[in-house]
Amino acid sequence: MLKYSYLRFCLNCAELRAWFPEAVFRGALGYTLIKKYCLQKNHEKNCRICPFNKHCINALFFHPEPAAESIIKTSTPPMPFSLFARNVSGQWFLFFILIGPAMEYSAELIDAICEMGREGVSRTKIKFSVLNIMDMHTGIELFNQNTSIIKKPACGEFNLSLLKGNSAADLQIITLSPWRIQIQSKLTRSWQFEDLVKKLLLRYSLLLSTYSGMNYEYSEFLEMAGQVILVNNNLRLVSRRRFSSTQQSIIDMDGMIGKMTFHGPVRDFEKLLEFGALFGIGKNTAFGCGRFEYRFSDK
């Protein structure tokens, strides 16, 4: 099973007008965590050889180690967190999912985000305050600016399963942020349901092996995915860029947005879709990419 915490930060940040807010918050978070918790000089280049890296939030968050026993080999394991931001009627919300060992650093994360607000984010140093923090599992308030007491978030568990025996239905996928996913080494809008299932299973398997030390057998998912057909696809490529303070350069963050509709025994995959809607799909989920929502309809 995959263990995780799910936090929602309510921010007083009226001046922020970012078209890519996750890049603003993610960039400031990396800088602030290093500034507050790194014990070494030249830290950004030495996390892997630092003698404290087994007990450091920076090493875990930004330089995770590949799983030793994973059936999927990768030199770039997924980060143990994902984030996304939403502006609802002028109110900014920042959502964080902490996975596995990252849950133990929730207090440091909260402290760092409060510090980010005091110091300011983006190149224009926009300041903000954290009004409150909610545990999305329990609905309990973990932090309030009036009390400054930090509570530990609950631990949720995600178990993936195939729900067999459902009748055919329509499934609509609506992207909430660009998907940075390559098929045959390039970004493409030519998707089939099997491609979606494979990418979601890959992310689940990598997170599970890296942060739970477990492997997952998913061949049955792939067999069932072949029974689902593509009905409509209006994905399109959008260009996004961010400035990397580490590399001191502009980084391309192009991705696909839009909607897709599928038909078949799609409800069998509801748990997998629930996972993807929560944890994201593809690359750069730590920058808010790969978000989506899904809807079923019987016809």
How many domains?
Answer: 2
Name the average pLDDT: 87
Q: End-to-end distance, in Å?
A: 34 Å
Number of strands: 16
3D structure, described in words:
The protein has 299 residues and is an alpha+beta fold. It folds into 2 domains: 2-157, no CATH class; 160-297, Alpha-Beta Plaits, CATH 3.30.70. Helices cover 26% and strands 28% of the residues. It has 7 helices and 16 strands. It has helices at 21-37, 43-46, 57-62, 106-119, 193-212, 219-225, 270-279, and strands at residues 2-12, 81-88, 91-99, 129-135, 141-144, 156-158, 169-175, 182-183, 186-187, 229-233, 236-238, 241-244, 249-252, 255-257, 259-264, 292-297. Strands 1, 2, 3, 4, 5 and 6 form a 6-stranded antiparallel β-sheet that branches. A 4-stranded antiparallel β-sheet has the order 10-15-7-16, covered by helices on one side. The two termini are 34 Å apart.
Summarize the entry for a quick read:
By secondary structure, the chain is α+β, with helices and mostly antiparallel strands.
Itemize the secondary structure elements and their pairings:
Elements: E1 2-12, H1 21-37, H2 43-46, H3 57-62, E2 81-88, E3 91-99, H4 106-119, E4 129-135, E5 141-144, E6 156-158, E7 169-175, E8 182-183, E9 186-187, H5 193-212, H6 219-225, E10 229-233, E11 236-238, E12 241-244, E13 249-252, E14 255-257, E15 259-264, H7 270-279, E16 292-297
Antiparallel strand pairs: 1-3, 1-4, 1-6, 2-3, 4-5, 7-15, 7-16, 8-9, 10-15, 11-14, 12-13
List keywords for this structure.
299 residues, alpha+beta, Alpha-Beta Plaits
